[in-house]
Amino acid sequence: MATRRHDPERRDRIIEAALAVIAEGGVAGTSHRRVAERAGVPLGSMTYHFTSMDELLHEAFSRFAQRISERFAERIAAATDLDALVSAIVHIVHDDLAAGQDELVLTLELYTLAARQRAFRQITHDWMRRSRAVLERFVDARMAHELDALIEGLFIHVSLDPAPRSRDLTRDAVRRLLSRSP
């Protein structure tokens, strides 16, 4: 009789493997089999740890959004005044968020999934709420909402535009928006 191997990190490996598989082939290209292979676990582990693909996707995207939120919060928390906030936002847009293809694909896949399925919308709502709460250390709630939207839009443009914005243009856009703050 075979003994069951104790593997307390298996669930986490599956979630991380799911993120890698999504980054490679999108949600549509993600299957239990591909994730199990990437995680190095038996296929049966998938249904043991996750009752459905939607549950796995929800866990994976929740982890991804939390990870990005934590990095965002650390960067913004280091700012000591509005000039430092502007610099932090430029760094977030050009370096943190646009650092790699995987994060771009994961972000856009999450947005698409949230647009199609209400169950995933809460992940994006929570992510936006966390971002705005961090920004509200410096600006009011309305400006935090506008800044958050600007950051998201700039990130997409910097990542996808064949002639992306310069850091100076991003800095100018953030300063112009902040100059409207009461």
From TrEMBL:
Residues 31-50 bind DNA. The lineage of its organism: Bacteria, Pseudomonadati, Myxococcota, Myxococcia, Myxococcales. The keyword Transcription regulation applies. Keywords: DNA-binding, Transcription, Transcription regulation. Pfam families: TetR_C_31, TetR_N. Residues 8-68 form the HTH tetR-type domain. One of its GO terms (molecular function) is DNA binding. This is Transcriptional regulator, TetR family. The keyword GTP-binding does not apply.
